[in-house]
Each structure stands twice: as C-alpha cells, then as structure tokens.
Design goal:
The chain has 601 residues and is an alpha+beta fold. Helices cover 34% and strands 23% of the residues.
Amino acid sequence: MSIRRLPNSLINRIAAGEVVERPASALKELVENAIDAGASQIHIRLEEGGLNLVEVSDNGCGMSRDDIALALERHATSKLPDEAIELVTTMGFRGEALPSIASVARMTIESRKAGEDGWCRVVDHGELAEEGPAAIPPGTKVRVEQLFGNVPARRKFLRTARSEYSACTDIVRRLAMARPDIGFTLEHQGRKAIAVQAGETGPERVAALTSRDLRANSVAVDLQREEIRLTGVAGLPTYNRGVADHQFLFVNGRPVKDRLLVGAVRGAYAEMLARDRHPVVALFIDMPPELVDVNVHPAKTEVRFREPAMIRGMIVSGLRKALDEGGFRAVQRPAESALGRWQSEPVAPDPQASIFSSPARATVAQQPYPSATVRDDRAAFAETDLRAEIAPLMGRAEEASEPVPEATRHPLGIARGQVAKTYIVAEAEDGLVIVDQHAAHERLVLERMRKAVEGGTVASQALLMAEVVELDENACDRLETRAAELSEFGLELERFGPNAMLVRATPAMLGSGDVKQLVTDLADELGAYDQALSLKERVDHVASTMACHGSVRAGRVLSVAEMNALLREMEVTPHSGQCNHGRPTWVKLALEDVEKLFGRK
C-alpha cells in the first residue's frame, strides 16, 4: 500500500480521538477557551449529561466574522503570539479543539466583539451548514449537539447520561476552583447544579465546590521557595474520604492529574490516614512557565517539571508544616447521624413515680400507673434485686481534692470523668469534649518516637548472633549498594556470599521483630522504587504498631490527674487530633447542640 496524504476531515477525526473522548472533554476545551477570552462570567448548559447538548456562553472578548472562520481551522490560535511555546500562560494553545469537536458533532458558534455586529457559523460534522448575522451580547456562545452522531463506533462507547454528567460536573468544578475571580453556573436539564460568584477567595471557592464543612476542618497551606509558591487548603486527616476524587491539584491555574503530585500528597499524609482513606486537598502551584512543560499531553492534563524532586519536597513539607500547625485539631463536631442517635428520656405519666421504680415496671407505660408513695417504691426497690436489670455504671469521676482548673484556659477543657473505661469526658469553654484515651495516647507515643528519630541517627541494637538472610543475587546487590545509607537507619548489613546477607544489627526501636521479613521487604521495595526511604517508611510503620501496643489501653481506669495530663499533652502535640490509623481521637459536642438535645433551642 502506497503512502498518501490524509484528507482534512479524517485528520480532524483522528485529532478528535485524542482531544475529545467524551462530552466532558469537549466541555473542558470550550470552558478553557472562555477563560482565555477574559470572561468574568461563564454559563454552561447540558442536556442528557452532554450527550445531546453542551452549550458554553461567556462575556469575554468575542470574535469577528473572520476570526470565527479561522478558529475552525486546525492549528489556528490567538494564544501563541510567537514560537515561545515554553512560555505559554493560557489554558489552551494547540488550536485543535474547535475543528476536532466540529468534525464529530454539530457545532454552532455565535460571537460578537464589543462595538461590532455579531456573527453565527454552523458546522455539521465537519461540513459548513450555514452562517449569518447573530443578535447576541458581547462574548461567545458555542453549542455542541449530537456528539459522535455520525460516528456510531465512538458513540456506543460513551457511558450513561448520569456517568457523563458526573464527569462534566467534575471538569466544571476543577476549572471553577482554579479561577475564583470568574463566576460559573452549570445547568443540567434546566436545573442549576453549580453556581459560584466571581471575586471569591480561594478557600471560599474550594469550600463552595466541595463541602461547607471543609472550611472548619482544614488548614491553610502557604509555602514559598525561590520563584515557586505553594498555596491552598488541606483537610485535617480526620476529615477524609473513601476515594481520591476530592484531591484538586493546579499548576499555574491549570487543573492537572499528575502522578508526582498525587504521590507527594499521599506521602505527606502517611501515618495519618488508613490505607483505604484519602485526604481532601486543593493545592495551587505557581511558578515561572519556563520551569514546567504543559505540552506533554493532548488534553493538557499532565505536566512535566524541570525539578520534580523540589516540587515533591515542597508539597510534602508544605502539607506537613500546615498540619503540624493544626496541632491537636480534629473534625470539629460529631456527625449528624451520631447526634440523631441521642434519645430523650421518656416521661412517665405518673408524676409521683420516682427514680427508685424498677425498669421492669417502667416498661408498662401504656397502662395506668397505680398510686404509690415513695415508701412503697423504696420497699419494692428493697425487695427486687436490680443488679440483673440495671446495666453496670461505667462512668466514673473523682471527688475534687483541690480547686478545679478553669476550662477556659485549655482548648480541650478539663477532665470531668471517664466513661466505659475508654472515653474521657472533658468540659471546655464552648462545649463537651469526648476523648478516646487509647487512640489519643497511641498518637502521643508515636510522635515521641518520631521526634527521637529526627534528633539523630536511629540507635541500633546488635544481635547476639548475626542472622543470615538468603535472597536472590539481584536483591543482595541492591542491599549491598545501599549498605552505607542503611546503616544510618540502624540496620547493619554485610554481604555473605552471592545469595545471602548477614545482619549484625537492627534499629533498636524495632525490638525483636522478624529480621528476615524486614530485610526481604526492604530488598523488594528498593527494587521497585530504588529509594533509601523504604526503611524509613518501614520504621515509621513499625513505630506506629509499637505505639499502638505501648499506649494506654481501652479498659484502663485513669485518675483525673492522668486524664488532664493526657489532655494537656494532646494540646501541644502535632497530629494528636487523629490516631495512627486516621481515626479521630476526640470530638466536641457544642453547647448549642447540647441545648438542642434538651429542647432549649
């Protein structure tokens, strides 16, 4: 078969396969064009999740009649005034989106520049259908109908309208989050799904597009290194999700889904979240355009950094610094479902009934209560063995031997008692604080251990008898190459023949662990990632497990002094708001919530 030039219609359809995967892809390109046009308000309308209609209207600079015709040609753009593509600052720059979309759908473009007449051009699957004057306000309106209508092979691979709508919503949410200076509205089937006003601050826009609770359960991130700045909001570890869909990452105002950035976020929250939980973050990286290459993916969703290690380090240190400053904070209030489980004590119809009535007799509330005196009730109480009927009282408190401290001086309040030998109940200035004593002390022990590790090299513990660990030759080579680095972590290894390593000492904090399993896992991780950090991560993991076993266990009775000492240490310890598995160590029941439970509000 001889080589031939492809016709423009086929070229556009091939390009559409790269740029336009689904309605959300077309929507992304159109909204980015509106942003680049300088719009301050963007309105989006969808029908059937974008399968039947995607319409984007803006109040940007608009286009003239000639510009509309030129915009529908491939590689025609106003966003590259010269050949310096590495300095591009606009959302788009390829000049492929409009002709690619028009080749697989019916596209209508209406646009008008301020002070000029409007113009309309309709292209039906790559063919000019009609054009003429249009009466519209300054700006541009683009309608995309019947996407892949003439390409049934592509149409049948689209998902349901609900799935496509979900993808479109995610695109709009990310773009709106990147530009809080622009107002966005999204309508689907005539119902307004998203509406945010122009001029909001970054945290306000993030909270409006995720959850209003995020503002109260997050910390601000702000870190500057040379010409690179990292800003945004990071949810507290206890404010997490079961999927990673609530991680929003932006580079120079461009939403991206980059493995480097996602991995850095996951690393920053290590030891603070369970493996199946994910943090809620919105991070914005601003840097000179020459330090990042945005021309590495047709859809511009991936970027390549000139110094990826520096970017990863900034994200990890920036997030950890912000979370450290959050200190002992956790999710600020219990869930509504938990509050709903509180039950009001039923009121007995007989006003003379006393607290000495047996529970067995109190269950017949529907029947008329016989008249009874206090003496009669006490007699009944004396005759009835209530020990089998009344649950053992699990709460406890001590008689104060000295003046009770002021709750206003401590954020986590003053201990008032212990419930079920597991939970500390404290009174704070603005509510009731309930602390899981085991989870809280587990975190405190881990933080002490980590601080000791950071103070210098990890102390090593020589083995009474050196242990031989048999591995394959490649694994031994990897360990031998990193032996000097590993010794800084307290692990002393020597080569012992072609297929074995001799272990002379292990990190003291690991105690009498499984040395063979540790070395085997380390060799595997070095082979997979080629990083000396694997042992550090292993140490942290083991330290977390040790802290769990070395902490105050549930079921241990604490004195009030011990409870208060635990609360005071939590207030000055970073990350004490969550245990080593990401669960909250304390919750607060605000005074107004308590008042609601008793019908006072």
